[in-house]
């Protein structure tokens, strides 16, 4: 007996599949499905975070930009004419908002509006130490290559990073993301251990 030979399965275009899935989420969100927005946030938050941070914003300000971007999506759900272009639309909104916030942050604050704090208590001292340690970390982080900085910013936002989304956003081969991430973290650890200020804090 001869078995019927099945034709090989056509290769799946991961990017096209992801676009279709996100487009379906947008259609569901327009129909009032709250879970659709949650799926989009889970999928695209790392990408939007990377876009905001790439404009030079700190973590707190970048988080505000990302939140504003999602609020803008909810407000304009029915204005996106091509659902498959959702990721590009969100990226554009996040970039424009980040640039606007960055420009505002560069304005000089008049000195007569700044209030001098009281003498710091123990809790304030602890906060100051934590802030200085964070600044030291970011100074060291800035010594990494631009590629490492971009990758670590993206993968740090979720417990289980979507490597397909990262591959698409950064143009990296899927299989190289994990090893590259490991090398970047190792380099960051080496730089921190060599920093006397980091050890003193």
Give the gist of this structure:
The protein is mainly α. Helices cover 67% and strands 0% of the residues.
Give a structural overview.
With 201 residues, the chain is an all-alpha fold. Helix content is 67%, strand content 0%. The chain contains 9 helices and no strands. Helix 1 crosses helix 2, helix 2 crosses helix 3 and helix 2 packs antiparallel against helix 6. The longest helix is centred in the N-terminal third of the chain and has 20 residues. It starts with 13 loop residues before the first helix and ends with a helix. The N terminus is likely disordered.
Basic shape: globular
Low-confidence stretches: 1-12
Going by helix content, strand content and strand pairing, the class is mainly alpha
- The tally of helices reads 9
Compute the number of strand runs: 0
Would you spell out the secondary-structure blueprint of this structure?
Layout: H1 14-30, H2 34-53, H3 59-75, H4 86-105, H5 122-141, H6 146-155, H7 163-170, H8 177-193, H9 196-200
Helix pairs in contact: 1-2, 2-3, 2-4, 2-6, 3-4, 6-8
List keywords for this structure.
201 residues, mainly alpha, disordered N terminus, 0% strand, globular
